[in-house]
């Protein structure tokens, strides 16, 4: 009654997808962790440690991309997308600290949603950076962070961000408000 060959192939294909999905999930959590560690290192001005984390992450991303090519649909796995977004956020912070600029990230092709999500989250890292700098009386650098956040929010306003990107954009606007408050507080302290 049942086509045994068909069901055997169906089971084989399903098992292959499941195995590759588990690999994607496992290594995506590693990428996510390494991106967070890179951000932490960058906040401590430890570029060498962050570069090592990026190198490890990039090797895993390349490996996972080979798996994804074999199994269509895995590129939409939630943890993989979250890991790429966190990687993007970390690389943007690295790029900004190293060059003073924010732009395209060489190496991996990131889709627009991943980049825009990472860019929005990057503004939160700049607020953290500004707090670190303010406590060390590096006020000029705080002003540079403020300008960068303002520039990012200005660019994000040009997009009609919907879905999961909308709350990220709202958070970026909130980060702009936070850094403006920091700058205000610094101005008040200068006058007293």
Please describe what this structure looks like.
- This protein has six helices and no strands.
- With 192 residues, it is mostly helical.
- It has two domains: 1-99, Up-down Bundle (Methane Monooxygenase Hydroxylase, Chain G, domain 1), CATH 1.20.58; 111-192, Methane Monooxygenase Hydroxylase, Chain G, domain 1 (Up-down Bundle).
- Helix 1 packs parallel to helix 3.
- The longest helix has 40 residues, at 4-43.
- The chain starts with a helix and ends with a helix.
- The mean pLDDT is 94.
Low-confidence parts:
none
**Radius of gyration of CA atoms, rounded to a whole number:** 21 Å
**Percent range for helical residues?**
over 70%
- Measured distance between first and last alpha carbons: 88 Å
- Report the biggest beta sheet as strand number plus sense, adding barrel if it closes: none
Strand residue percentage:
under 5%
Helix vs. strand class: mainly alpha
N-to-C SSE string, H for helix and E for strand: HHHHHH
In short:
This protein has six helices and no strands. By secondary structure, the chain is mostly helical. Helix 1 packs antiparallel against helix 2.
Give the SSE layout.
Elements (H helix, E strand, L loop, with lengths): L3 H40 L3 H24 L7 H22 L12 H24 L3 H19 L7 H27 L1
Attribute tags:
single chain, 192 residues, mainly alpha, Methane Monooxygenase Hydroxylase, Chain G, domain 1, 6 helices
